[in-house]
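hi! just following up on the protien thing from before. the input was this:
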Amino acid sequence: MNVFQIAEIGKFIRKMRKEKGLRLEDLSDDQISTATISNIERGVPHVNQEKVLYLMKKLNLDMDKLPEILVKENEDMESMFLKFHAIENMLHLEQLDQAWESLKELSEESTFQYQATLRSLKGRYYLQCKKWRRAERELTESNLLIQQDPYAKKVNLEAINYYSLACCSYKQNHLQQALKYIERGLEVVGKNGGEDDQIKYKLMMNRVVYLEKLGRIEEALNHAETLWEEISEVRDITVLIQIHALKAELLRKIKLYHDAIRYAKEGINLAVSARDYNNLTYLWTTLGTLYLELGNKEDAETCFKLVLSFQDQIQDKNKLLLANNILGSIFLLQDRLDEAEKAFVQAIEWGEKIKGVKELVHSIFLLGKVKRQKGEYKQAISHYHRASELAKRMEAYPAIFRCYFEIALCYRQLGDQENMKKYFDLMNEVQKEIDAKDGLFQLL
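and the predicted 3d structure came back as:
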């Protein structure tokens, strides 16, 4: 028997033992120890072949029929791999109900050696359902079972799990923990082999994202350059598009606007080819923001109007909410008050449906500004007051401060000195909260 045959026989023996409900201790005797049985099942090369034959005899396995059995076993394995790949595709395409049903259809007998994969798939399912704790538990358990799972080694499952754990932490705003998972994923991505080498670039990309969110812009740029040097190796079109989007956003942060515009446009061309509306929305929003920061309101308006035309193709209305707020702000700057009001009313309608509190506060606040510029001060006060109440839920004290300031200005326009003073006093109270939270020397 060569090394490959020993490994395959070992896997098959383990499967047969499990199917018979036997423990290692049940098969050990004075001729063969539990340690030797374990070595055989794990395919350890130096195991005495006589011991392998002895163990097969104890399990009533016919050596003459073994080649035929192993061929069948390999066919079963390939069939199982295909099922796993199909479920991964369902999860990627957000067909969550179908993915869960397919997981439930897998029998326990046929999947006992694939527990790491099953736990991982369940973890990724829970991640997309926003059930964070369940997702973390399944993914962590999966990593403990990697060594016994043949599919896990084939697809770089440990790295995939760390990537998913990082996403889970990021969604909960635990950025430091997310970054730790990414670093761990990059450590293991090359160690375990596997056909899916593209997970490496997803990990590298998210490392840049998390560093940028943590305000570590220089580090983010350095890692973005490293990622860009390997871009010819990236085969996943979605990752390729996102790398361009990330590069454009980072260059915007350091005010290299024209370079950022070039990368955004390259990303847009890729996203159009892939009909990737989610990334198109992000890239056109980035491009519009770049034009706006350059003072080119006309081109910015073109970008954000296009983003809003994607509304039937976009599931995440938060992205549309942001675009509507920026477009309305452009109208506000140009004194196109009726168009601005229409944009903010639409944004509020979306925000109320999706419960996107942060952008909703912004939309209501901006609608208040429209009303104030129109001289409709009482309506403006009503909008500012609502925005401040929503901001209180998030303890967003700078937003509360801005709302109170605008309310005070409205009361001054109405000649109501008492209420104006009341809101200036409230601003002082909010400023104390800001100082306590951010620290006295935050501005220095």
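Residues 66-92 form the longest helix (27 residues).
The mean pLDDT is 87.
cheers
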